Amino acid sequence: MTMGEFYSASDTQEACTLLSRYREKASVLAGGTDLMVAVNQRRMPLETVVFIGRTGLGYIECEQDALRIGATTTHTEIARSPIVREKAPLLAEAVRSIGSPAIRNMGTIGGNVANASPGADGSVSLLALGARVKLASVSGERIVDLDSFFVDIGKTRLEPDELLTEVIVPVRGEATRWTWHKLGQRKASVCAVISLAMALELEGGTCRRVRIALGTVAPTPFLARKAGERLEGKALNPALIEEAARAASEALPERDGLRASAWYRRRICEVLIRRFLAGLAE
What gap in Å lies between CA 52 and CA 212, rounded to an integer? Predict the structure, then answer.
């Protein structure tokens, strides 16, 4: 491995200044659990490294209607946080399934999102929760819905001179019901064949604010919008459950992968959604 210049930014302003200077030549380093794998496999060179581990972005803060999680907060910190476990238990459960303890101790939520893997456990759960990301540059800050942040495998709306600094997670009420399911070829340190993150509010038996996100079924974490819309404002019953599960399955791209066929993922998608909703209906 050859590397050019290495910078350890002292704050986000310095990091953004370096990104503005080097742009496409710069690689942002936090935990390194994705970046260093790519480098060691010689899939990408390192021309200029900007380390952001000392920029003060490792925090979890609770506001009235949202959690604010700094980009360098590790998966272990999120999984163990009493605030996250109370306000966003779906996220806490999802990040517990990322890699091994060593990976969770080093990997960060910002890296998990910015890496733009179709099956990133953190990204899929955040998509189901309606999260947003804050992006900073020398020109200022902007907030982007995660719905539109992902573009393709490894590609996002993040500009070359921008740094992902924060993940904003809406806090849902006590009526929220959720599920996280990750299916893999083994139980430990597994890459998902398919994952499902689903959150909805059940008020008086009626479904509200339904979001169904799936991982490893498309080039990006996938939001099954039509399936969610089928459930909105309706009471659960067997016919509606079948309709929603089928709508989610039919929306998945015809995309065979190394771990499973499109046909298999569609069938599993139906089963997982049907089981969760049937459990709520009971």
Answer: 32
Q: Count how many residues are written for the chain.
A: 282
* β 206-215/222-223 pair status: antiparallel
Question: Count of CB atoms within 10 A of residue 79's CB?
Answer: 18
Buried b (16+ CB within 10 A) or exposed e, 182-209: bbbeeeeeebbbbbbbbbbbbeeeebbb
Do residue 94 and residue 181 come from a single domain? Answer: no
Query: Are 79 and 37 in the same domain?
Result: no
- Residues of the chain whose pLDDT is less than 50? 1
Q: What is the per-residue pLDDT across 183-195, written as a single tens digit (0 to 9) for each?
A: 876 555 567 789 9
Residue 246 domain boundaries: 176-281
CATH number for 43: 3.30.43.10
